[in-house]
């Protein structure tokens, strides 16, 4: 499992980046081979046509002007004009196709990472702030946009351009061509030296960016608490600190990145000066004026791609810092997954057995459950009671395999939950957590989440049964009223009634209710109790409630403490035992 992380700590990479990862990036480009070849073809055409300009200049200076060949000059002008039109069409086509290609690749990548993170287990989400996951799916992928669209194809185009120019230069004058390469090795060395620092700087930058996003994400989620505790100033302080760290690392990364550009520029200027010097000395002896001027134009043609390649290299090193995070996420093992020979769980009756279950959240962590043993018959209701932190939520998280047991087994209808296909397991279990999740959309859509093909009538019927219909009808647009994400425009009780309807619609054989009635006042509780009774009919249900009045009617009550079952029995039985449950119940009763 990944090491736990917060917004204050930089994430360490689980493995270092290797050139193989670029190959992996290539697999995203592969499906678009045809498009890439088409674009490259256009680039070759544009480059070949582009070679005409300096050559025409050489002809003009060395032949047409001295020999006053007006007709040839005009003919050449016309050809030159056509060549410019071809180049500009190629350029337009190239930009369009490259952008299209880059966006398609990014879309594939984004889809891959999103599909993958949906399969990752709870333990992954426990291990880092959600903002740090978010930034990988959104921002890091976006930073690759330029690399994949312009960078890569421009790089190939520049290589082609450089090679064609080099061939033409050698064809015109071998000596001058060789002189023009003299400073290139120096540049290559400088690039490699700078790259090492640059990569580290960009890794740091991506970390700081990730920390800041995690903090902003957390702050938005907790804004109500911040405002009610009036802790805005403190939050601002932490934000400024993280923001400063981000800015500083950004400046450092950019400063290092900018070192490459002067190195390339200087080498290019030195080479051009050097060639002018050599060329000027040879004019009239071995070199004509036209050749030297054409040569200089080719030189610019030769150096421009090198400058661009330098920039691409910069971009690549920068993107590497993000790419390794993206691949790291993609390589994260979905630990909770179907075994190779997993069977589809047949429609269940709902018998649940915990066999000597041991559970730890972290390998080195404490044993939360330590030999937990119990049985629930199909259709019965069981309440889990125990002090806070005893492991009640943990128990129910094991039933639908949000986590896997460390030892022992959880069986449904005699089948180990680890031997069945996850989808077939979870489809038959309904869960209502303490924090009812309401998605942005209409009430109807929110209830329909339980059964995507449910008709409007089915939804209304379910709502009626759990007593949600009356309040929904009173909303401005009834079932079509739009609610905000997390249901912020609804009361807690209303949110819970909606989630009751949602679960009823899903019609699971096993139902899990974790503190589902915790946020509700006594009047609403009575209403909910009626809804709840409807919900519980003919299902095996696990109920966690701190208010013992809500679980009195359960067939069985388990008191969990110290990772084991401490007491077991019906409400009456446990009261007679005069143990932990009886004490708890009596103290709640006395407090009323
Ligand atoms: N994701 C997690 N990672 C690590 N430890 C966890 C995680 N979730 C819970 N724990 C720990 O496991 C123990 C049991 O937690 P659990 O939520 O199951 O208790 P609970 O009985 O449901 O508590 P409560 O009544 O307060 O809801 C606690 O000590 C808690 O700190």
TrEMBL record:
Record-annotated ABC transmembrane type-1 domain positions: 37-318
Domain ABC transporter: 352-587
Keyword ATP-binding: yes
Residues spanning the membrane: 35-57, 77-95, 152-170, 176-194, 259-279
Alphabetical list of Gene3D superfamilies matching this protein: ABC transporter type 1, transmembrane domain, P-loop containing nucleotide triphosphate hydrolases
Its membrane topology: Multi-pass membrane protein
InterPro entries for this protein: AAA+_ATPase (IPR003593), ABC1_TM_dom (IPR011527), ABC1_TM_sf (IPR036640), ABC_transporter-like_ATP-bd (IPR003439), ABC_transporter-like_CS (IPR017871), P-loop_NTPase (IPR027417), Type_1_exporter (IPR039421)
Name by which UniProt lists this protein: ABC transporter ATP-binding protein
Organism: Vagococcus hydrophili
């Amino acid at each position: 499992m990944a090491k736990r992380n917060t917004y204050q700590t930089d994430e360490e990479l689980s493995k270092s980046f290797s050139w193989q990862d670029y190959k992996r990036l290539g697999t995203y480009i592969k499906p678009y081979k045809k498009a890439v070849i088409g674009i490259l073809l256009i680039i070759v055409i544009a480059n070949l046509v582009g070679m005409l300009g300096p050559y025409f200049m050489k002809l003009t200076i060395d032949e047409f002007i001295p020999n006053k060949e007006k007709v040839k000059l005009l003919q050449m002008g016309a050809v030159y004009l056509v060549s410019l039109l071809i180049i500009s069409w190629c350029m337009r086509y190239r930009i369009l196709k490259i952008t299209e290609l880059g966006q398609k690749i990014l879309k594939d990548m984004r889809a891959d990472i999103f599909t993958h993170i949906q399969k990752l287990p709870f333990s992954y989400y426990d291990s880092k702030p959600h903002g740090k996951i978010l930034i990988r799916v959104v921002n890091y992928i976006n930073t690759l946009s330029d690399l994949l669209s312009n960078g890569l194809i421009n790089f190939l185009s520049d290589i082609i351009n450089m090679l064609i120019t080099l061939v033409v230069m050698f064809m015109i004058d071998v000596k001058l061509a060789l002189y023009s390469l003299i400073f290139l090795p120096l540049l290559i060395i400088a690039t490699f030296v700078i790259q090492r620092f640059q990569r580290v700087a960009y890794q740091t930058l991506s970390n700081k960016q990730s920390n800041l996003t995690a903090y902003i994400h957390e702050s938005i989620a907790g804004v109500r608490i911040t405002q009610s505790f009036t802790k805005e100033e403190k939050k601002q302080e932490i934000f400024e600190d993280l923001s400063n760290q981000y800015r500083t690392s950004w400046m450092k990364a950019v400063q290092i990145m900018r070192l490459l550009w002067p190195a390339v520029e200087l080498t290019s200027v030195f080479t051009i000066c050097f060639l002018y010097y050599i060329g000027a000395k040879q004019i009239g002896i071995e070199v004509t004026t036209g050749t030297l001027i054409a040569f200089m134009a080719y030189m610019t043609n030769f150096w421009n791609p090198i400058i661009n390649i330098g920039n691409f290299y910069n971009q690549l090193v920068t993107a590497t810092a993000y790419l390794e995070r993206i691949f790291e996420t993609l390589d994260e093992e979905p630990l909770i997954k179907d075994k190779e020979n997993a069977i589809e769980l047949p429609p269940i009756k709902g018998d649940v057995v915990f066999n000597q279950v041991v559970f730890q959240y972290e390998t080195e962590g404490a044993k939360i459950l330590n030999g937990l043993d119990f049985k629930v018959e199909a259709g019965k209701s069981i309440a889990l009671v125990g002090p806070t932190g005893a492991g009640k939520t943990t128990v129910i998280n094991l039933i639908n395999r949000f986590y896997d047991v460390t030892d022992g087994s959880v069986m449904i209808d005699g089948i180990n939950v680890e031997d069945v296909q996850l989808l077939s397991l979870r489809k038959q279990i309904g869960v209502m957590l303490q924090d009812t999740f309401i998605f942005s959309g209409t009430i109807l859509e929110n209830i329909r989440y339980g059964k995507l093909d449910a008709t409007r009538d089915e939804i209304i019927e379910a709502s009626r049964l759990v007593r949600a219909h009356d309040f929904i009808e009173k909303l401005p647009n009834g079932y079509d009223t739009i609610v905000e994400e997390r249901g912020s425009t609804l009361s807690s009780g209303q949110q819970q009634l909606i989630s009751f309807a949602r679960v009823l619609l899903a019609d699971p054989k096993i139902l899990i209710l974790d503190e589902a009635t915790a946020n509700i006042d006594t009047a609403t509780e009575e209403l909910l109790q009626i809804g709840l009774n409807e919900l519980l009919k003919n299902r095996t249900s696990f109920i966690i409630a701190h208010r013992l009045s809500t679980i009195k009617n359960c067939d069985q009550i388990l008191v969990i403490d110290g990772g084991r079952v401490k007491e077991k029995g019906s409400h009456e039985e446990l009261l007679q035992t005069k143990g932990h449950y009886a004490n708890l119940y009596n103290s709640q009763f006395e407090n009323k």
